[in-house]
Amino acid sequence: MTTIHRLRGLAAALLLTLAAPAAADDNRGTAKEAQDMVARAIAYYDEMGAEAAFAKFNTDPAPEFLDRDLYIFVGGGDQGLVAHAVDQSLLGVKYSSVVDADGKRFGEEMREAATLDGVWIDYKFRNPATGEIEPKCTWAVLRDGYIFGVGIYKP
Predict the structure, then answer these.
(1) 27-57, pLDDT tens digit by residue?
(2) Which of 15, 64, 76, 142 is the most exposed place for a label (fewest CB within 10 A)?
(3) E strands of the chain, at which residues?
(4) Among residues 68, 67, 44, which one has the least CA distance to residue 56?
(5) Helix segments in 20-102, DSSP class H
(6) Angle formed by the axes of helices 31-48 and 50-59, to 10°?
(7) For residues 135 and 155, what is the distance between their CA atoms, to the nearest angstrom?
(8) In whole angstroms, what is the distance from residue 119 CA to residue 110 CA?
């Protein structure tokens, strides 16, 4: 291999490196990972029961139910939020009272739209990994009157 070929190869590698997404994006959860986490949370709930599952989600969620910027939360009817892997100060908050930074009533939308098959809901929320309000899309699944959700933060 000639020197010119090596230099071209190095230049191509450098361009690929510069064009690659920032390392911070590598720390963001994906839509598939969010859906998988909701499925794991529901399976855990089915196996262990509501009390044990919500205790796990609230007090010892990592790594199954808290991974990077992905985390489980669960709300149910008049009880409001019953589990939140990142911020237990939100426990008891009713979906009807939750609005995002733009005033969107995403909690009410989530309560009305969640299905057994799941649905994506868009809103803005504080990303625990960055501390910033960011666009978020949550996979919400209805199970036994509870909404199990995990959201992804959009870059």
Answers:
(1) 899 999 999 999 999 999 999 999 999 999 9
(2) 15
(3) 66-67, 70-71, 73-76, 80-84, 119-126, 133-143, 146-153
(4) 44
(5) 23-26, 31-48, 50-59
(6) 130
(7) 8
(8) 8
- pLDDT over threshold 60, residue 59: yes
Residue 15: its H or E element: helix 3-19
The two structure tokens encoding residue 14:
């450098």
Q: For residue 71, how many other CB atoms are within 10 A of its CB? A: 24
- Sign, CA dihedral 151-97-43-119, equals negative
CATH dotted code for 28-153:
3.30.450.20
Backbone angles phi, psi at 39, to 5 degrees: -60, -40
Contact indicator for 81, 98 with CB cutoff of 8 Å: no
pTM for the model: 0.81
Cα separation, 103 vs 72, whole angstroms: 23
Please say if the pLDDT value at position 60 is more than 50: yes
